[in-house]
Structures are given as C-alpha cells and as structure tokens.
Amino acid sequence: MAVELDAVGVSRSIIIGCGGTGHRIILETRKRLVDKYGSLSKIPIVQFLQLDTTPLKEEVRYAKEVNLTPNEYVFMQVQNIAKYRRGLENEPHLYPHLASWVPRSILTTNVDQGAGQVRARGRFAFFENYPTIRERLYAAMNRVTSDQAYREATSNGIRVSEGGISVYILTSLMGGTGSGIFLDLAYLAKNELSQAAGAKTIDTIGILLLPPVGGDLVGVYSANAYASLMELNHFNNPATEFVAQYQPGMPELRDPDDPFTFCYLMDSRNEEGDVIGEDKLIQMIGHYLFLDLTHEFASKKRENRDNHKQWLRRDEFDCPTKYLSFGLSALCFPKDQVLHVCANRLAKELVSGWMDPASVFDDRQLQEEASNRMAQANWDCDRVRAGLAVEGQSQHGRSATDAVGEMVRRAEATAKQAMNESAIRALERLIQQDLPPWISAGDEANPDVRQRRGLGIYPEEIRKGLERRIEHMSAWLVELVTELVNDPKYRHEGCRRMLACLERIATQSRDRLIRDSTELKAQMDALNGQIQKMLSQSRGEIRKAMESAANGSRRKAGRGATSNRGTAEAAISSFCRAVAQHAQDSVQAFVCDAAHRFYTEMLACLAERNRDLRRYEEHVGGLRERFRAEEMRFLESSPAVNGEILYTGGDEDADEAINRYYQHVTATERRQIDDRVQAELGITSMGLYGYFLAEGAGSIDTIAGTILRHTTAAFKDDIEAVEVLNLFFERYPDDRAAEEQMKRLNRLCSPFVHAKAGGMAGFTDDPQMRQRNIGIPNAEEPKTSAERRFRAMVTKAASVTDPRTWVTVASRSEALFLHERSGFPLRLMEDALRRCESHYEHTRKRRKEPVHARVDFQQWESLTPAPPHLKAEAWKIFFIAAASGVLTCRPVEVQTQRGQEERFSYEISYFDDQGVQHTEVVADRLPPFDALRFDGRDYPNGVMQLLLKLCHPEGLTDLARRIQRKQEETVAKEGVAAIRERLLDLVNNRLSPQAEFTPHACEVVSGYLRSLQSAPGAGAPATPPAPAPAGATGDRLAKLRGLLEKRLMTASDYAAKLKEMRGEGVLTSDECRASLNELRDAGLLTPAEYDAACQALGLETAESPAEENSIEARLMKLKSLFEKGLITQEDYDAKRTAILAEI
C-alpha cells in the first residue's frame, strides 16, 4: 500500500539491466519504489527489463514485489552450440548475421549458465535471442506510452511527467554478458523504439560500472572493461558508424550517432579519494535512479543534462568528451523504513491477538473443563453407553434387556409346563429363532457397527441412535471450535489445546470400550459352550422325566416322576439363565462396539476440526508471519545511503529508535484499530473462525492491505512530522561538529570516477562542466530556524556561490547533495586505464577467446589516439589516392534500415621487392563521397576504421606510406595534367554542389594541386623529379630512409648522417635539402622534425607557398612544443591567439 504519494511527476521510463550488476541496480531501484508507493502496479509508466545469460532466481533479500517476474526477464540462453559451430565452419552463408563477427573460439559450450567472462559470447547470446528481446522492449514501450497506463497512474494519485521517454541501460563493463551487449542494446533501443514512442523523444542513458580502483579483481575483468571502453569510445566518435545485422534477411542497423544520449561512468572511488564498496555503489545508483524517476530532483537533473549537452563533444586531441559521472550523498531520516516497521509491527500484534489467548492456561484446569464440557453434552463414556443401551425402548415399549428376559421366561415356562419333546423344541427355538431377530450383532468381523449386515431389531435401533449421536457430536465440535476461536480468552491456541484435551478423553473412552467389549465377548464365548452342554443336559433330563412318567407303579412312578421332573426343571432354569446372560452380554457388547465407533468418529471429527484449525492458523498465522517478515525485512534493511542516517537526535540503534516511535500508539488506540479493522472486513458479524475459513484463502492480500492501511494511518502523521534537519542539529548541536559533517557530505557527493580534475594537454576542465545541487525543504526561502541554519552552514562548508545550486524538496526527511560532472574524455582516467590496459594486453595474448565483443573490426582506436592533424593527413592521402584512381574502387550493394544502398570498397595493388603482386583492402563499404558528413574536423564522419589503418599515435602506417608512394609513382607515370583532370572532374562535375562534402573536397584537391605546383589549365607532363644521388651514395640514403621508416632511427640521427655525408663531399646542401623535403612530403618527418633537421644542417627552412600553409606549420610547431612540455598552457594559448589573429 502507498505510504506517500508526492505530487511530483513520475517520468515515463524503461529501465534495462544487463548481467548480474544491472540486475542488482534494478532491485535497489524497485525496492525504493515499492517502499514509496507500496506496489509497482501503481506506476505502470515505469517498466523494467533484465537481460542475462543465467536463469532468473529470486533474491531472498528483497520482498516478492521487488523481485522481477518472468515477463520482465529475458534468459538469453543458446542451446545446441555444436549446430552453430558446424554451420559457421561449413555453411557460413546460412548465418550472414554471425559469420563476419563471431569468433569460432567461443562456440565451445552452450550458453545457459553465464557468458564465462567472454564478451563475444554475451553478444552472441544477444543476437540469438534478439526476437524475444525486441518483443519485450516493444511491450515495455507500448505499456509506458499507453493511455491505459496513464489512467492507472493518475487514478493512483500519481502525476505523469510530460516530456520524452528515458531508457536506462545499467551494467558493469567487467563481466561477459553486460559488457558484451550494452552497445547493441543502446542502438537497438534508439532505433527500434522510436516508432513505438510516437512523437515522444527517447533519451538513452547508460550507467556503466568500471573496475574498482585499487581492487584485487581478476585480470580478465579489467581487460573486459578496457575493451568495452575502447569500443564505446570508438562509436562515440562521429567518424564511426555502428553496423549490425541481428537476423538473417533482416536489414542492417546502421547508426553514425552516439550510442547513448548520456553515458555515466561509475567507479568505487570518487574524486576526493573516498572509497565505497560495490554494494554501497550499487545502492547509491539505485537511489540516483529513484530520484530521477519520482523526485523533485528529477526536473533539476533534466535541466542539468540539458546544460551538459554543450560539453558532450570532443577535445583538441579529437577524443570524445561524451562521458559523465555523479556522486550522491544524503542526510536521511529513514521515514519509510520507520513507518513500515511500525505499521507491520502493529499489524503483527493485532493478528497475534486473533491467535493467542488473553491468558495463560493451566493444563489440569483445561483438562477438567474439557471433561465438564463432554459431560454437559452427554458425550462422556458412561452417558454414551447408557443412552445407546436404551435405544429402541420408545419404539418397542421396552429395552433390549427387558425383551430378552421376557422371551427367556416365556420359553422357560413353556418347557417346564410341557416337559416333553415340545419342551425341548421350545428351548432350541429360543436360541435359534426367538432371540436372534431381536439381538443379533450381525457380521461381527466388521468392526464398524454401522456397516454390519443382519442386525437384530435392537442392535439396529442402537445403530440408528449411534448415527444421531455422531451427527450431533460433529455439530457440537464445530460450534465449540467457533466459540473458542472467537473468544479472546481462548483464541486459536486455547482451542487447539482444548481439542487436545477432548482427544485424550475420546481416546481413553475408546480404549476403555475396547477392553469392556473384549471382556464381554470372552464371557459370551465361554457361555456358548456351557449353553450347548446345558441344552444337551436339559434334553436328557426332560426325556428321563418323560420316561418316568410313562413307566413304573403309580407310587414308584409318582415318586420317580416327581424327582426326574424336578431335575429337568432345574436343568431348564440353568439353561435359560445362561441364555439370558449370553443375550444380555451380546447386547452390551454391541453397545460397547457402537460406543467405540462413536469415539472413533469423534476422534475423526476432532482431526477434521484440527485440520480446519490448521487452515485457520495457516491463514491467520501466515498473515502474522507476513507482517513479522516485513517488519524484520524493513528493520534489517536500513536505507543504504552514501552519507548519514539519523533515526533520532540521539545515538540509539535502529530498533531502539523505532520502538520509541512505536510507543506513540497506546493500547487503547490499538484495540480501537482492531475493532475498526474487524468491522471493515466483516469479521465482527462472521467471527474470526468463520471469516477466515470462508474468505481467508482467497483474499489474504486484501486483508493485509486493509490492516496495513489502518496501522499505517496510526503512525503516519507523527512520523512524517519528523524533520531530518532538526535531528541533525540535535545530534550535532556544536557548530564546528555540524560543519564538519556538512563538509563530509559535500565530499562524499564528489563524482565517482577516478578522472583527473583540472584537465590535461588538449582538454580544459571548465567549471561549468560540473553541476551541484543541494536539496532541502524551502531551499530558496528557508522558513524554519533549522532550514536557515543548515543553508547558511552548508553555503560556507561547501563553498556554494550559485543560488541555482539549491533545490526545494517536499520531503522533510532528507537533505540531498548531488554533484554531476560532464564532458570529460576517457584519457582523463589515465591511472585506471593504464592498469586496465596491462590486463587487456596480457589477456589478449594469453586467452584463446577474444577480449573484444566482435572480430569484424581489424583494430580499435587506442584510448590515447593519434592527434587530429595526423588523422587529417591520413584522410587526405586516402582521398587524393581514391580520387586520382590510384586505389581500385568496387561498388557494393548493402541492405540497410533505409533500404538498398550503394557503398564502395577501396583496394590498393602493389608489387613487393620480389615482384609478387598484392591486393590490400583500404576501406570497406564506404558511403559515396558526397554522402559523407562533417562536424567541424578535417576529415568526415564514418571513416574511423579507415583512419585506424592509415595512422596511429606515433605516425603514419606502412599502408599510408605505400599509398603515398603509389600516388607519386602514378603522378610520375601519367603526368600531373592527367591527375589534375581527374581531380577537377570529381570536384567540378561528379560531386553535388549541395553536398556537405564538396567544399572539403575542393579544399583538399586545391591544396594537393598546389603542392604539385600545377597551374590552372596546365596540361603538360609533370616535370621529372631531380635525379637522386646515384651509386653508393644513393644506396646509403635508401638504407637510411628504410631505418627511418621502421623507426630504428630518429630524425636527428638522420640529419647527423646527412651532415656526415656532406662533410665527406658525397652530398651537397641542395641534395641534403631535397632528401629532407622528400621525407617530409612522405610523412616520415613532422614539420617540427623537418625544421630541426634543417637547423642542424645549417639550411634555411622553406616557407610554404601559401600563407595558410605557413600559419598551419607554425601552429603545428607550436602544438608540438606544448605537447613535449617545452612551453606552458598559458604560453601556448597566448601564442596561438597571436598566430590566428594574422588570418
């Protein structure tokens, strides 16, 4: 549930995490959003997506709501890797999107448990999961921009910010997954989502984590980071173009622009040298994103970024200055944490009152109460037996015992009276026909009397009585449980213990009945044998009496007959008593069996009630456990801020401080809250037991939400009234101590990137590249004494001079310090880069898998690149050679997002010193010249790969010199006029006058033609070059040039050798100058080296024929002196200004 809905607009955003680090930052951001709004469903205009090469796992440190759902996670697995390996080896045409860039060395194992720190493997997984990634991105964008999301957000009291859509990409550059895919993901987001965004602009914001400075990371992590930065820097250069084809038959994605609108680099050490661990860094970034999305700081940060854009360009060394960093520190009263702990603790106590009895029970007293309740309900053993024994009496007017006695007496009287064969038959009929229909216990092998067949009349009545009792007993137990659970005296725990007492009573009664039934049946077995003997005896005595009556004298017969008759009557009486006892025992045994079944059923009912009670416990106990777990989670997860957390003005720990706030709600208020909650939920009318068994299973979330709404309201006003500035001055009443803490907070917010402050050669660190903001309530016009005092002290402690630094925030629970830095080049991080570069070189040589994410680039520009003038020279060499026809041009059709386009590949053919012809590609798939664009440099955009082939930080490459030599050979062979004609045809006829490239081409061609000393309209063959010194002298010069080309000799060494040869008389001064001119024109000598060599030989340096060249040479010489540290920055700037003023 939402604890606070600020009237601050929430920005439409998609936050994408890559790899494990990106996932952790997402969770930190989501945690803060859930703490603030209660549920992410309240802010559907913010969507999340995680890409990784490991399966989704729940992070138990975070609440379920914070963890990502399967729909927010793309598991970039690749199975059947052998198929790709065989396909790329044998049929690469089936995989056109992979063949050019996938290194075969990574195709060794399936991708399902991470990328193994191999960046190319992470990128390979991205390509193969591209359809799913693209689909999820579109789904997120459609959700963020939908009217439905807007309505849902506003209905939850959230104002939706106007403006564009921010796509955040979060990753570490150290692993294999995130660092392997971040560039593709950035370009994909830019190019694919623009259509779904409609009229809204998209800003891609990268937050990339670097290896910790001074950390003991495995070397491959630093190597990966360095390679990632090389690739990032490469595509941040306007002279490059990003190209990728993600699926076969799909148009290439081509983008000449930067991957990110804003690219933040984050380290664990800030500019002040303060170091924080990785966990705290990730938490700080999560805090920063949270502010970006929902806070008053968001608008100020957007304003800052607009200001940053002017600095995102390149420096004087042509290095991209497209990088930013930030630091965020805070003084925080953890309002949300305190409120959540208190609300969940009270909710837990309320629910505990629905389970735990109000008083402690004595087991003996509870057992006695259970016995009394059984007796009052007539469920004690004696009453159950007695009741069953008289069943049938109302229906038949007598009990079974009376009926048995009457039948036996009647049979006995009949037998005694008849004293003949009919008497015997009467006795036999008694046990065989008269008694069984009335007292038969049926199939005694079946222990369940309710299921027996062939029951006599009275056992059947007993069975019916048993059924009625079981039904009543079951209902009685339901009522008893309901009564006890709803009674605060008993509740769940008291009821559970009462049922345990009843279970003991039922078990004892059942066991007693088993014993009684066993005894009765043993007596019956014994009587069975006696009855048969007695029946035989009665037969004999009756027959004797019959014989005596029929034979003998009257006197003797009378005396004998009387004696025999008495004996027979005695036998009959004994037999009938035994039969009557057996019949009564049979009835009583059946009663015992029936009563036994009653208690068996009672135990089953008790088990069922216990199951219901456990369901109640699951629902209510689960609810209590939910609140307890949330209480502990919030208690243990203090907001991780880079700064200071204040719970009170004292030094209590979190639990002690929060307990003070908890005590603000009295016991009476808690009972009132309980009553209101039960009334709102309907518990008052249904009772706790009935409510949770009927409703609880399907509505626990609703119940929890209702309870938390009431418990939160009980604390909210008091907690929100707490002002962190008041707590701060309570903790630090002394001004000096307070100022020291403010200085510390200001230092902690320094940007977390280990880059030099103050600039370096070719880059000036302008103060406007930094934006500082400090947020407190009423910052512009403080209203309270604490606000005024805090602003005044921070102004002094942090040297705040710009009033725009201050930002008014609505929350009184935090003071924020933000410092952003923009527009610095990577080479400013030279210490970190130097360490990473060593790991990069080591890993590149030792590991079979490549360090780079793709192998379709022959080389990547160094992070300490060639100077701009060298790149410009290399470009001119290529362009003149291409325009002159020195290079072979081959058209290539390319399918791009814009459709079918024509590109051009340029090659050079040459013969080696053995006469073998070679062909080397100079530029591959270059756009037409008049399609090239410029941004103020001396070479066009999109040609960086070409320039990397032609120059490096130390000078021109062998390929560039080879092109120069072939250009010279072509001029010598075909003549200046022919070359001039081709060049003029290009610039005058073949290039579009409106093309951005045309003015540049005209300037380059004009300068080249001037260098050939070709007058307009000249068509004569080129003047042959002055003959080179012949013989041994020529050989010596050729060898010296070779050494110079291979950098085995310096320019000063070469000049010394020329001076030596001139002293020997084998060279003249003019020949020395010609040799130096040749080397200068070939790019083997820089202007400064040329001048120095001339001076060493005592030769005057030649002025360029045109004023522009003279100024250019002077500027280059001045720059060379500055780069070598021979002049200061101030001297360089003053002299440069003076030279430029001559133009």
Model description:
This protein has 1143 residues and is α/β, with parallel strands linked by helices. The longest helix has 83 residues, at 554-636. The two termini are 70 Å apart. Residues 1-7, 1014-1028 and 1103-1109 have low confidence and may be disordered.
Summarize the structure in short.
This protein is an alpha/beta fold and 1143 residues long. The chain is 57% helix and 10% strand. It is built from 38 helices and 18 strands.
Give the key terms.
single chain, 1143 residues, alpha/beta, eleven-stranded mixed beta sheet, three-stranded antiparallel beta sheet, 38 helices, 57% helix, 10% strand, disordered N terminus
Task: Note the topology.
Elements: E1 13-18, H1 19-37, E2 46-52, E3 73-75, H2 81-90, H3 119-128, H4 130-145, H5 147-155, E4 165-172, H6 178-197, E5 202-209, H7 219-235, E6 242-244, E7 253-255, E8 262-266, H8 278-294, H9 297-308, E9 323-332, H10 335-352, H11 363-376, H12 381-389, H13 393-396, H14 400-418, H15 421-434, H16 436-439, H17 457-486, H18 491-550, H19 554-636, E10 643-645, H20 654-662, H21 667-681, H22 683-686, H23 688-720, H24 724-731, H25 735-748, E11 770-776, H26 785-797, E12 806-808, E13 814-824, H27 830-846, H28 868-884, E14 888-896, E15 899-911, E16 917-926, H29 944-950, E17 951-952, E18 955-956, H30 958-974, H31 976-990, H32 997-1011, H33 1031-1045, H34 1051-1064, H35 1069-1081, H36 1087-1097, H37 1107-1123, H38 1129-1140
Parallel strand pairs: 1-2, 1-4, 2-3, 4-5, 5-8, 8-9, 9-10, 11-12
Antiparallel strand pairs: 6-7, 9-13, 11-13, 14-15, 15-16, 17-18
Helix pairs in contact: 1-8, 3-6, 4-6, 7-27, 8-9, 10-19, 10-20, 10-23, 11-18, 12-19, 14-15, 14-19, 15-18, 17-18, 17-19, 18-19, 19-23, 21-23, 25-26, 28-30, 30-31, 31-32, 33-34, 34-36, 35-36, 37-38
